[in-house]
Amino acid sequence: MCSPEIVRRARDGVPQPSRRALFGLAGITALAAVSPAPALAAPRPGAVVDLTHTLTPQLPVWPGNPPIAMVPVAWHASGGFGQLALGYWEHTGTHLDAPAHRIPGGATTEALAVEDLLAPLVVIDISAKAAVDADAVVTVADLDRWRARHGEIPERAFVAMYSGWERRIAEPSTFLNLDPQGRPHAPGFSGEAAEYLVAQCGIVGVGVDTLSLDCGADPDYGAHTAVLGAGRYGVEMLANLATVPPIGARVVVGAPKHAGGTGGPCRVLALT
Predict the structure, then answer these.
(1) Which terminal Cβ of the chain has fewer Cβ within 10 Å, N or C?
(2) What is the residue range of 236's domain?
(3) What pLDDT digit, counting tens, does each position of 145-185 carry?
(4) Would you give the DSSP letter of residue 180?
């Protein structure tokens, strides 16, 4: 997600900087439209599942943010090598939120502990209630039900919410799900559940298959504040969570590492 200021500017109709000004790029090449991910069978033990959406200009972004720009700048026919110039805001596609994204003086991307980027993966499935309530959240009661069925959440786990939201990704308007006031509506973690995971479960981070750790309509960003304020990280816009088990897999977060970063696109893998 982006800062409340970006959201305010988008709502108020203040013009956003052009992609040319932001990136110094021109002639953006149109790519094929994103198509829905096909249904996948449960992975065999030892499989690697990609939890990452492919970055294209058609991928939904937070309201007010520009899409990724991809411009060919070198060609095999003239020099022997191909190359694209990429321009994107940090919080684009499947991406990491470092503490500095929400917390002034918080840890930036290069300061994240590498030990925290490989962790037991816990998947909390709220897709049933998200199907009837776009503002559904993971609650402490959901965590209690998960524990009653699967046991304790492992120490230093990465806890991901599966809401089924990625089924909307081929149509950005339904993925963003803006109301007439321009507020997005999509599932996330409640602030109370995020605080519980940090204080009681010792997690390393949380993830969602939507554009925000918080329910899109939450004006207080309680989940962001609880998770990032505790020095943990978040990953937004995960893919394929329906194909990994609720417990037993491990996650690998290929986090960005640029100085002073508040986050950035990452490659996320589940090892089943």
Answers:
(1) C
(2) 39-62+89-271
(3) 999 999 999 999 999 999 999 999 999 999 999 999 999 99
(4) T
Using only C-alpha atoms, what is the Rg of the chain?
18
Taking alpha carbons only, the member of 164, 166, 159 closest to residue 124 is 159
Asked whether the beta carbons of 5 and 92 are under 8 A apart, the reply is no
Close Cβ partners of 49 (under 8 Å, ≥ 6 residues apart)? 43, 240, 243, 244, 249, 269, 270, 272
Is 261 a member of any domain? yes
Give the confidence band of 1 by pLDDT, cuts at 50, 70, 90. Answer: low
Q: Report the first-to-last Cα separation within the chain, whole angstroms.
A: 28
The domain tally of the chain equals 1
pLDDT at 41: 56
Determine, yes or no, domain membership for 137.
yes
Residue 253 lies in a domain: yes
**199 is a domain residue:** yes
For residue 205, give the nearest of 245, 170, 160, 158 by alpha carbon: 158
Q: What is the C-alpha separation between 267 and 161, in angstroms, rounded?
A: 17
Compute the distance between CA of residue 95 and CA of residue 109 in angstroms, rounded to an integer: 11
Which CATH number characterizes residue 234's domain?
3.50.30.50
Task: Give CA–CA dist 96/53, Å, rounded.
Answer: 13
